[in-house]
Amino acid sequence: MKIGVPAEVKNHEYRVAATPAGVHELVRNGHEVTVQRGAGLGSHIPDEEYLAAGAKMIDSADEVWAQADMVLKVKEPIAEEYHRLREGLVLFTYLHLAASRPCTDALLSAGTTGIAYETVQVGNALPLLAPMSEVAGRLAPQVGAYNLMRFNGGRGVLPGGVPGVAPAKVVVIGGGVSGLNAAQIAVGMGADVTVLDTNVDRLRFIDAIYQGRLKTLVSTSYAIEQEVLQADLVIGAVLIPGAKAPTLVSNDLVSRMKPGSVLVDIAIDQGGCFEDSRPTTHAEPTYRVHESVFYCVANMPGSVPNTSTYALTNATLPYAVKLANLGWRDALAKDPALAAGLNTHDGKLTNAPVAEALGLLC
Ligand code: NAD
To answer: Is the ipTM of this complex over 0.95?
Structure first.
């Protein structure tokens, strides 16, 4: 199969859909991989590494798309890419079609076969979203610690304290993939960490791993209030699949928090779990609410594209190899996880929740 890897063109997107190791694996399986020159530079992966791994390199994005049977990308196509969509092409990427009617219309009118990373599903798990939750979770205490510094508007607290001085209190609301990764890094920094979740089985699992090194609490509005009032850093990491995030920290509660406390809302891409959360960007990531600092960047992994590229492609590569080796029809027939990824084919929407969100038939 001929596989194309174009450079990403969406604003501030520095990831790339294949690493040199991924190219090597696809070539080893008998496929031809063409990478757009410079596609890896945003993640600090030079062209020479792709060449050494067996890629063909070309300058023109139009050519990368035109010669490919399957295009591997990171983000959904944007308007300037729509003319490259066509019938017979398989596009494997994050699509998030429920949030973009124009992209849906472009894929449908072109007749492109769109397989979306975010709807590939194994049981209840979303294996191609998990790596980005891991990255965002591990970043949260880092950006929290940065913003807790006095000159960044924070209360001037060092997460680990020092001998004789108490560490910062970090409260993580939601102990799923991102929340557990956040807790892990906060514990590693030496902070006093509490994780709240509504799922007691999840809390049992976390408690068993951490052996008393952090505290777990069932998430109720009472417990959240008690914890948040003592917190230096609050990390929001909840998810109710398919729904807007619940509002768990009110404006009134923030008004009573310690001055200079920091709130990081990882769940901002689902509307956020603090009443005053609104999406921010890496250019201006924080704002103040009462005397607290809010950080609500919707694309946290974008700030560490090198790590994010490797984390994402580790997860996508086995599926890309399967699609290339078997062809998309047989690959989907043999793998229900991948079948759940099919969003568009032959001018039709094929994913019921996406169709429902857009008010379309599938
Ligand atoms: P997950 O499903 O692994 O975990 C969510 C957890 O929230 C679950 O354990 C669930 O039991 C818990 N929960 C639900 N309601 C709760 C409540 N009221 N109180 C406490 N816990 C509650 O989800 P995840 O992969 O960790 O993702 C969390 C959110 O982060 C999602 O919205 C995801 O899209 C988002 N995310 C954001 C970024 C970013 O850059 N901002 C990056 C990756 C993921």
So the answer is: yes
